[in-house]
Amino acid sequence: MLEQLEDFASVRLGHRAWTPPVEARAGSVLPARDVDAAQAEISAWDGYAPTPLVALRDLAARLGVERIDYKDEGPRFGLGSFKALGGAYAALRLLQRELAGPGGAAPAIGEIRDGKCRDACAGITLVTATDGNHGRSLAWGCRRFGARCRIYVHAKVSPARVQAMRDLGAEVVRIAGDYDASVAVARQEAETNGWFVVSDTSWPGYSAAPRDVMAGYGVMAREICAALEQPPTHVFLQGGVGGLAGAVAAVLRQQLGARAPRVVVVEPDRAACLFESARAGRLSCVEITRETVMAGLSCGEPSPMAWEILAAEASDFVTIPDRLVGPAIRLLAAPPGCDPPIKAGESAVAGLAALIAARGQPELWRKLGLGDRARVLLIGSEGVTDPAIFAAIMAGRDHG
After folding, report:
1. pTM for this one?
2. Chosen CATH of 87-199 out of 3.40.50.1100, 2.102.10.10, 3.40.50.10330, 1.10.357.10
3. 2-82+210-394 with 87-199: one CATH topology?
4. In the chain, what are the domain boundaries?
5. Separation CA 8–CA 182 (nearest Å)
6. Each residue of 324-372: pLDDT tens digit?
7. CA 85, 217, 298 angle in degrees (round to 5)?
8. CA–CA gap between residue 364 and residue 121 (Å, rounded)
């Protein structure tokens, strides 16, 4: 293991400390009742099962922490990522609202889930922008519920991820530009054509669907709380627009109260919009001049709703370079000692990479409050969602 960890030793991480305000926002932005509703519905879906929470004992001993737990979202509904919890659930909720009509009674959500409203849903088109996983979840949901699905992807989304969405019946439109440009096009075309956006990011006047997405993600956090014997002292959370980080931070606060862990947000240094928001002390955007290999985290504009939670819950913002992704994936897939092998995608290992690299920086290790009493929670947000990229990384042909 020593040789594998040496890949991380010389890498310097960006770090920004953040002092959350006294008042908590987790309960008002993402109320527990919303997560209750998501949990009740999603747990009724065919194929639902909590995903594994894997103890990485050998790695914890090598790094000098008490324990490391890794939530492996690869098996989630056969879709390969935690996003399966968000897009499909938000689609279901949006369809329920739209089928109610002005002043009308909404159909029971179970009727839509079970396909009893397919004829009515067929006249509704749901759209989104995606790097792959969110769109796959939406396409899966639309196929189950009978709605039409149109998905916008940017120039760098891999062909395999595009094909996975088309295989689920979605119409996929590739645009020039980056993820943020695809969000803008999706919004514009939805408004022009009377379609409905199911986005994992919010904007002024648009919050219902993103809140439903985050409520779905909250189901994963509840599974974690149910599985852990002791609360974690730290949780390392991927950035992106902030939906995952905000949802997990909110639910951990709701479930654990004062015992909630220290929240460390991790982003690619090529797409660090949350880091820059912390630096500026307000919601800030960044221009992405070069895409990161961590495709699901390539976002230049944070979600205001997610930032409202993170501004109240996060203590630290960390950036990592792409060169850490390949070594982290290989370490998980072929670990020495007794840790079980895990196949992870590029965005899944951000927290793991940051934790290992921080061990080689004593000052940062101290600033993050890590030590032999630390119990670290990592979110393995995706499995192998592009087999060709995974094979190339395992062969040492790292991207980025």
Report:
1. 0.95
2. 3.40.50.1100
3. yes
4. 2-82+210-394, 87-199
5. 34
6. 999 999 999 999 889 999 999 999 999 999 999 999 999 999 999 999 9
7. 95
8. 52
Please tell me what DSSP assigns to residue 261: P
- Which amino acid is located at 351 in the chain? G
CA dihedral 246, 174, 113, 39 (to 10 degrees): -10
In order, the DSSP letters of 318-355 are EEE-GGGHHHHHHHHHS-STTPPP----GGGGHHHHHH
Give 299's DSSP letter: -
Give CA–CA dist 193/276, Å, rounded: 35
Contact (CB, 8 A) for 400 and 271: no
Contacting residues for 179 by C-beta, under 8 A, at least 6 apart: 129, 131, 154, 288, 298, 299, 300
Please state, in angstroms and rounded to a whole number, the distance separating the CA atoms of residues 283 and 94: 27
DSSP code at position 245: H
Residues 6+ apart with CB under 8 A from 98: 124, 196
The domain defined by 2-82+210-394 carries CATH number 3.40.50.1100:
yes
| Active site positions, annotated | 83, 131
34-87 pLDDT, tens per residue? 999 999 999 999 999 999 999 999 999 999 999 999 999 999 999 999 999 999
